[in-house]
Amino acid sequence: MPDADRSLDRVLVADQRLDHARIALDEAVAAARVDGASWQAIGQVLGMSRQAVFKRFGQPDPHTGAAPVRAVQPLIAATEAVFTDLANGRAASLVERMTPVAAAVLAVRDVEATWAAVERADGPLVRCRGLAVRTPADTGTELAGDVVVATTLECESGAWHGRVAWDGWDRIAGILIVPDDRPGLPF
Q1: Nearest-CA neighbor of 125 among 77, 85, 67, 72?
Q2: Of the residues 68, 99, 122, 141, which has the fewest C-beta atoms closer than 10 A?
Q3: What is the pLDDT along the chain (187 residues), one digit of tens a residue?
Q4: Quick one: CA dihedral 89, 118, 98, 150, positive or negative?
Q5: 146: helix, coil or strand?
Q6: Fold assignment, 70-179
């Protein structure tokens, strides 16, 4: 059975690499649009029609390449889901929602260890309270670009700061979990 386990590990690694490659391609297309590349030019590079490229990657504004404007509430719900996933032992599921840089920096075992420290100190998560968007581009109900959603993580016997940084395409760019009394948070 050890050979089968190694083979399955290789399948998992290949699948993760494929996910990261897809994200990297999405980011490269978005960057090309920001730099002024047309959908036609991107299609030529990818061997696709202009229409097919736009259909697949067309979330950014077709004229500027800017991230889409999106509603505040889904990001608040997504942030709560991040911490719920952590509390339910599903840290590995977050990787597929991360930017490639975040996935490279935020190792699942480190995120799991951080969450385990929270639970050792103050017990299991009871709820997320006071979820709020923090960004200078906040217009109230719609957002563009990178944002941070902050919350108080109420645990059984204490509270922690929780923050999730989201890129312009609603991918996790960072996760912060620190004691409630910690000053000078990095984001």
Answers
A1: 85
A2: 141
A3: 578 778 888 887 887 787 777 777 877 877 777 677 777 888 899 898 877 777 677 655 545 655 555 577 888 999 999 999 999 999 999 998 998 899 999 999 999 999 999 999 999 999 999 999 876 444 444 455 678 999 999 999 999 999 999 887 788 999 999 998 887 777 6
A4: positive
A5: coil
A6: Nuclear Transport Factor 2; Chain: A, (3.10.450)
The residue to which tokens 């009394």 are assigned? 181
Whether this model's pTM surpasses 0.70: no
For residue 146 the two structure tokens come to: 């990178």
Query: 3-state SS of the chain: helix, strand, coil percent to 5?
Result: 50, 20, 30
Length of the chain: 187
- The pair of structure tokens assigned to 67 is 């991230």
